[in-house]
């Protein structure tokens, strides 16, 4: 289905790279059909070209009508210039996949006439084909568009089709989630080194521990609650650790992190909508 499709990424940041790396590893779209446009950073474009053997463009050289699929991968603050670039140029037979955080499908549909648009929230684990990706579809999409989008994002992990109103909480959990785990890993690495474990082993020990816990849950070996209880014998070392986690606010902090991310995601859309009134 994607054999003859040409795909353009607008924005050459880490998220575009993570997706490109994933789709090349999974051979869902060949490298020679992948194009990336960035604003001015020629060195970054050269780096991506060399690493993945894809085509790269500076903004002014792109002919947007050549592409079947256009992935928008810039920050929300750059959205207006992207709309200006697309408006009056693209056709309704081109599929837009927006991974831009916070920006609602309505925003695009109001500015681009009858354009098929799918809003997607992947995460950086796309790089190793382990993303948890959400997809919400616009009103001008058809089954073919939805299937193409699923194929692309399934090549880089799991895809969940959700209602668009849940995109912000999904961002709080899965889009931003890797950052919470990295923050946790930083703390665990630091205390492991302080406790005398050899530095060269610590990174692997911590990462393997998180990977194993995730695999236990995904392998249906029990709910997180049951699995937690299995680790913590009454009055054992784990129980002491969990008591500290709770008493230092660790559990509440996790919930607050998700809530704050969700709130900020909603705010960004509101701020940008307001700035154009
Ligand atoms: N990094 C992450 O974990 C995730 C990011 N996202 C979202 O994906 C989008 C991209 O994320 P990153 O790659 O992290 O962002 P980034 O800010 O690192 O990269 C975006 C790139 O787009 C370029 N750019 C800006 N305006 C442009 C224009 N008009 N034409 C061409 N290039 C332009 C910038 O120079 C920059 O190199 C953002 O909206 C972000 O919120 C979504 C899911 C996860
Ligand atoms: O925080 C950000 O800017 C984006 C949202 C999801 C991951 N990164």
From TrEMBL:
EC number assigned by the record: 1.5.1.2
Keyword Kinase applies: no
Enzyme class (EC, first level): oxidoreductase
GO biological processes: L-proline biosynthetic process
Keywords: Amino-acid biosynthesis, Cytoplasm, NADP, Oxidoreductase, Proline biosynthesis
Domain of life: Bacteria
Compartment annotation: Cytoplasm
Record-level GO cellular component terms: cytoplasm
UniProt pathway: Amino-acid biosynthesis; L-proline biosynthesis; L-proline from L-glutamate 5-semialdehyde: step 1/1
One Pfam family recorded for the sequence: P5CR_dimer
SUPFAM superfamilies, A to Z: 6-phosphogluconate dehydrogenase C-terminal domain-like, NAD(P)-binding Rossmann-fold domains
Function as written in the Swiss-Prot or TrEMBL entry: Catalyzes the reduction of 1-pyrroline-5-carboxylate (PCA) to L-proline.
Protein name: Pyrroline-5-carboxylate reductase
Taxon lineage: Bacteria, Bacillati, Bacillota, Bacilli, Bacillales
Encoding gene per record: proC
